[in-house]
Amino acid sequence: MDIALFDSPEIRTQLLPFTFTRPVAEIRVGILTITEKWAKRGFNCGFSTQDYLQAKYFKSDSPLEINGALCPNSGLIDAIKELKAGEELVSGDTVLARHSGGGKTVAFAGEFTLIQHTWDIFKENRGEIIADFELLTAGRTSQEITDPHTIVYGKENLFIEEGASIRAAIINAEGGPVYIGKNAQVHEGAIISGAFALCESAHLNMGAKIKGDTTIGPFSKVGGEIGNSVVFGYSNKGHDGYMGNSVLGEWCNLGADTNTSNLKNNYAMVKLWDYASGRFANTGLQFCGLMMGDHSKCGINTMFNTGTVVGVGANIFGAGYPRNFVPSFSWGGANGFVTFQLRKFAEVGQAVMQRRSKDYDQVEQDIIQHVYNETAQYRIWDKA
After folding, report:
1. How far apart are CA 236 and CA 216, in angstroms?
2. Between vectors from CA 88 to CA 83 and to CA 94, what angle results, nearest 5°?
3. Mean pLDDT throughout 228-256?
4. Are 251 and 349 in contact (CB under 8 A)?
5. How far apart are CA 91 and CA 105, in angstroms?
6. Average pLDDT over residues 222-251
7. Averaged pLDDT, 60-79
8. Vertex 353, ends 159 and 18: CA angle to 5°?
9. N or C: lower Cβ tally within 10 Å for the chain?
10. pLDDT of residue 286
11. In the predicted structure, residue 166 carries a pLDDT above the cut 70
């Protein structure tokens, strides 16, 4: 069945900076992206997204449109398949799906997961790891661990794909499933607590300590201590340092001994920069760390305050805490920022992507150019 995964304008804004560079449905939560969740359930997925993204993401003309922030389950799928032309499936004021433009509302009373805010990505990650684990492993047999020095608790909750390598690790899957993807590598001394997903060709470096409800996306390399965080893919946090209740986009790099605070000293609720209102908004969460958009990087020993938002293409370095909102294409740190010019950014982007056999091609360049222009309003130093 063909479907078009559409961006709700309100949700898309609430999911910035991650949706500057991708449709809502391309967000990874659990093991899979939302697009992959629908595709694994037999749907042919296209997108209805921002015009500047459509050159990269196939535009679907399907009359059946599904909210790109919606994670599928069996009850939702049954309700969506029953929609007739001119009907839309809703929950309160939220449109979940619509057929041929919608108009006549059909209420959905079942349970569902909708990724509406950036913090929902890590908040809902445990449930989505469990759902994706069941989907991906049903009727299949895990590869065996051949390393005699690896210790596993709750082996029935561990699944290892073909080509994965595990050496002298401790894996505790008693509290949640652990998924080790195709050609992924768990290096010596790593300690893992489920729920956890290490996606295709990702590396868990020596001595890494992974607390539960964490996803490391494909072709990423991570080390140090990580808890309840999501790395979309192609990003590195290769060294010691703590990252908790955080989300990294693609092509990010955290320098050695980078640390993210996820709890305020006064235990107050965390506020995050809100692109919709142009000010900081209360998340209602006591634990919330770093939200970093694609292609952003930081130098060694960087310290991120609780609830920091970093846009696309930023480069952060130097002593002290940078501000809690770092606009896209910022260059600097606690002592101030200048603009990371596109010419210099392109040199870095091309070098980084080539290391993963990807091209910083014209399509990517056009997307980055659009984001650079769209985010100029936040680089207030250029207006001084």
Report:
1. 10
2. 135
3. 98
4. yes
5. 9
6. 98
7. 97
8. 70
9. C
10. 98
11. yes
* Number of Cβ within a 10 Å radius of residue 280: 15
Q: β-pairing, 94-99 with 87-91?
A: antiparallel
- Checking if the pLDDT of 259 tops 90, the result is yes
Residue type present at position 74: S
- Which residues, in sequence order, are CB contacts of 98 under 8 Å at separation 6+? 64, 65, 83, 87, 88, 89
Structure tokens at 240: 């010691």
Can you name the residues that pair with 259 across neighbouring β-strands?
303
- How far is Cα 382 from Cα 158, in angstroms, rounded to an integer? 51
**3-state per-residue secondary structure call for the chain:** CEEEEECCHHHHHHCCCHHHCCCHHHCECCCCEHHHHHHHCCCEEEEECCHHHCCCCCECCCCEEEECCEECCHHHHHHHHCCCCCEEEEECCEEEEEECCCCEEEECCCCCEECCCCCHHHHCHHHHHHHHHHHHHCCCCCCCCCCCCCEEECHHHEEECCCCEECCCEEECCCCCEEECCCCEECCCCEEECCEEECCCCEECCCCEECCCEEECCCCEECCEEECCEEEECCEECCCCEEECCEEEECCEECCCCEECCECCCCCCCEEEECCCCEEEECCCCECCEEECCCCEECCCCEECCCEEECCCCEECCCCCCCCEECCCEEEECCEEEECCHHHHHHHHHHHHHCCCCCCCHHHHHHHHHHHHHCHHHCHHHHC
**Per residue in 86-144, pLDDT tens?**
999 999 999 999 999 888 999 999 999 999 999 999 999 999 999 999 999 999 999 99
Enumerate residues 6+ apart whose C-beta is below 8 A from 334.
318, 319, 320, 321, 322, 323
Work out the angle at residue 352's Cα, subtended by the Cα atoms of residues 351 and 357, and round it to the nearest 5 degrees.
Answer: 90
pTM above 0.85, yes or no: yes
What pLDDT, on a 0 to 100 scale, did the predictor assign at position 38? 98
